[in-house]
Amino acid sequence: MNMSARAAMAAIAVMLGLLDAAAAPPATTIAVIKAWARATPPKADVGVVYMTITNQGTTADRLESLSSPVAGSAMAHQTTMKNGVMAMTAISGGLVIPPHASVVLKPFHKHIMLEGLKTPLQAGSSFPLNMTFRHAGKIVVTVSVTGMGAMQAPAAGAGK
Ligand SMILES: [Cu+2]
Known about the structure:
By secondary structure, the chain is mainly β. Helix content is about 15%, strand content about 50%. The chain has a single domain, classed as PCu(A)C copper chaperone (Immunoglobulin-like, Sandwich).
């Protein structure tokens, strides 16, 4: 093999290396576990969804939009206490999921608000929630509906 052939081989190896890098999985790996919501009374307009979102990637990701066929709108909220009064506000700029971390959405903390409920959420049923992350893209989550007083996800079959 002459020198120029060697150089060509080396160049090809470099190119293949670059192609491998391009085909590598994305830096963020988002998973949603235990997505649940409480049942809502008849004629309720709002529902609340809780879950754990994990980011196994090396860069932060951001929940940019939400939708569900059961509601007119869905958005990430946080609960705050101001002068002893509990209030909810939208998380401006979207919920951030830091790298190698989990964000837990739970009662009295961060949550996803469903507004304009089309039908009451019934205990024992489930519904889809579409979540779009800046890097991970769209994830469709199945939300399990618990009894009205529940404070945590149902023990079995939750948030598959
Ligand atoms: Cu809320």
